[in-house]
Amino acid sequence: MTQAVPPILSITPSRALVDEKFQVLVENLPPGCPVTLHSLHHSEDKDDWEAYGHYVSDHRGVVSVTEDLSFGGTYTGKEPMGLLWSMRPVPGSREGLRLRKINVCTPMLVNISVHSGHEDFRDRTPLASALAERWYMAPGVKRIDINKQGVQGTLFIPPGPGPFPTLLDMWGGGVGLLEYRSALLASRGYVSFSLDYLRSEHLSADVEFKYFETAFNIIRNHPQVIPDRVGILGISLGSMVAFNLTAYSTIIKPRCIVCISSNHYHPPGTTLKAGFKILSKHFHKAHFDENNYMSWRSFALDLIADPSNNVEVGRINCPMLLVNGCDDQNWPTVETAEEVSDALRHGSQTRGLGSTYGPRHPCLQAVY
């Protein structure tokens, strides 16, 4: 494609938090011109991630990712943020990658470019490009390393006088300490404590549930925290901890809990390692799909069918939000959420799938 006036690609805003929408606009194209919009991010793990959509310019020679349809690529249809949410490893990347932000004090840099045509666009020099900065930590947010009373993690405090509502933030198994969710929560007005509970020194010490109680009390007693507005946020293994703490702790009384990829498995004893030992006896039952990806879902269904393996969720007496993916193969999260929903709505103390329940729980929402 040859033209006298070069195309112009603009991103508005070019610097924003990761949960803010942006507009990508290409101007000065010939009318009816097929082009590909491509986004590329080089991660801190040294891997390249991309997304792209195929567009056709309108009668003015304009492509607006916000308003126009993508006719193919990593996403189709009108998807204003498709260049971000549909990112995947570039062809030829190593397997088992996860896109994550490690250093929240620096932005996620995304290069967005426009290429002529739809086929073999990577082989063509971009017609125009622009850089977007996507931040997890807003200006003025304080990041504080915590190593107190045996508890480790990172505390994020929003700008302003406070005090603020607060969340104890717990990630799932196998990822270690990640800060980007807590940094974003603080950017939106919540004190958030990203708790480190899966590093080797903790598991080797066989971390007890008292560790989480201590962490909860540390943030509840912080001068920038509203003491009676402290919630618990957990994903996967973190949701298991959230269920256990809320149901059984005599110290922790959270304002609410949010469980993503719900897991209400109840490990025997008082330590996480004890629960892992029980789970490890079932690993040989794991299912492998056609891509050789391992799924725990099938044996976990059998595990939680036994009422003695589950948290007595009827003991929980605070608002709860359950967020689950319907195709989760790591754990039967939908079945877990359905059982928890039924138990809480009817106030049952009974555990196990297929139980009969009694009076309604005051506040519950499940999202699939």
TrEMBL record:
Q: Which residues form the Acyl-CoA thioester hydrolase/bile acid-CoA amino acid N-acetyltransferase domain?
A: 19-147
The biological process GO terms on file are:
acyl-CoA metabolic process; fatty acid metabolic process
- One short Pfam family name for this protein? BAAT_C
Q: Which GO terms describe its molecular function?
A: fatty acyl-CoA hydrolase activity
Indicate the segments forming the BAAT/Acyl-CoA thioester hydrolase C-terminal domain, all copies.
207-346
**TM segments?**
none
Family listed: Belongs to the C/M/P thioester hydrolase family.
Q: What is this protein called?
A: Acyl-coenzyme A thioesterase 1-like
Its taxonomic placement starts with: Eukaryota, Metazoa, Chordata, Craniata, Vertebrata
- The encoding gene: LOC102192919
